[in-house]
Amino acid sequence: MAGITLAEIAAKLGAELRGDGTVVIESIAGMDQAGEGQITFLSSSKYRKHLAQCMASAVMLKEGDLSFFEGNALVMKDPYLGYALIAQLLDTTPVAATDIAPSAFIADDAVLGEGVAIGHNAVIESGAQLGDNVQIGPGCFIGKNAVIGAGTKLWANVTIYHNVMLGEQCLVQSSTVIGADGFGYANDKGEWVKIPQLGSVRIGNRVEIGACTTIDRGALDDTIIEDNVILDNQMQIAHNVQIGYGTAMAGGTIVAGSTKIGKYCIIGGASVLNGHIEIADGVTITGMGMVMRSIEEKGMFSSGIPLQPNREWRKTAARVMKIDEMNKRLKTVEKKLEENS
Questions:
Q1: Whether residue 122 sits in one domain with residue 33
Q2: Is 136 found in the same domain as 69?
Q3: UDP-3-O-[3-hydroxymyristoyl] glucosamine N-acyltransferase non-repeat region domain: from which residue to which, for each copy (predicted)?
Q4: Which of 6, 16, 250, 328 is most buried, by the most CB atoms less than 10 A from its CB?
C-alpha cells in the first residue's frame, strides 16, 4: 500500500482523530526518526517529553498525552496495539511465492486448493493437502499426507514431515523443521536402540513459528500446539509437548518431552523446561528460567542469575559452592543455641 489518509486509518483502527484527516501516511517510524508522511506512536507516558520535538505527520497516543502534542493525532487506549494494526495496513513484505514454479515437484495425488503458490525447487509429496491461498516458499519440503490449512505461509526451506497437520493462517519462517523424530531410544547393554516416532505434530490456527525452530513429532501420541501460539526463533520443542492457546515463547527456549504448557503463558528467551512436567495457565517465566518441576499456579517465576562484574560474580560463585558447608555450620550453631536456652 503506497499511502493511506489519516481519516481512513482512524476508521480502520477505531481511533479518535484529532487534526487533519486528509494527511497521507506512507510509513511508520520511531518517534525520534519520523518525518513528513510518517506516523509514530507513544505507548509509555515517560517518553512524552519527546513529543515537542517530534516531526511525524501524526502520532498515536493516549488521551492523557494529547495535551503534550500540537500536531495530528490518533487517540487510542492502546497505542502499541495501534502500531501493530497500522503496520499490517502498511506492510510491504513480499509473498513467499507467486504462482507455481516450473521447477517445483508436486505429486500427482497431492491436493491443491484455489490460489496456491509454490516456489522454485519445492517438493510436495504424495497425499499432501494444501488449502486455498497457501504459500510455499522456495526449497520447502511437504511430506506425505501432510495437511496445510488455508492462508498459511511458509518461507523458504521449511520442512514439514509426513502426516503433520498445520492449521489455517499460520506463518512459518525459514529453515524451521516440523515433525522430525523425537529423541526416543532404549538402551540394550550400552547400545542405543531407536524407538520409531509413530505420532505426529498437530498445529492449530493463527500460529506463528520463527526461523530455525524444531518441533518434534510424538512417540505415540501427537505433539500439539493450540491456536494463537507464537514461537520465536531457534527453539526446540520435543516430542509429545503440548502448548496451550495464546502462549508466547521467546527465542532459544528448550522444552523437553511430554511437558504440558497451559494457556496464555509467557516464557522468556533461553529458558529450559524439564520433561514430564505441567505449567499452569497464565504463568510467566522470565528469561533464562530453568524449570525443573511443575508450576501449579499462575504467577511470575525466575531463576537466571543477573549479570555482575566478573570480580563480584567470582565471589558469588565461590559462596554458592560453600552453601552446603555453611548450612551444616548453621545447623550446628542452632543446635547449640537450643541446648543452651
A1: no
A2: no
A3: 23-89
A4: 6
Q: Is residue 220 part of a domain?
A: yes
User: Which of 26, 56, 89 is where one domain is finished?
Assistant: 89
Are 109 and 27 in a shared domain?
A: no
Is residue 239 annotated as a catalytic residue, yes or no?
yes
Place of cell 495530528: 72
- Cell numbers representing residue 103 in the block: 521447477
Give the count of domains, the chain.
Answer: 3
Maximum C-alpha span of the chain:
90
Q: Which of 50, 120, 162, 239 is catalytic?
A: 239
Q: Which residues, at least 6 apart from 68, have a Cβ–Cβ distance to it below 8 Å?
A: 48, 51, 52
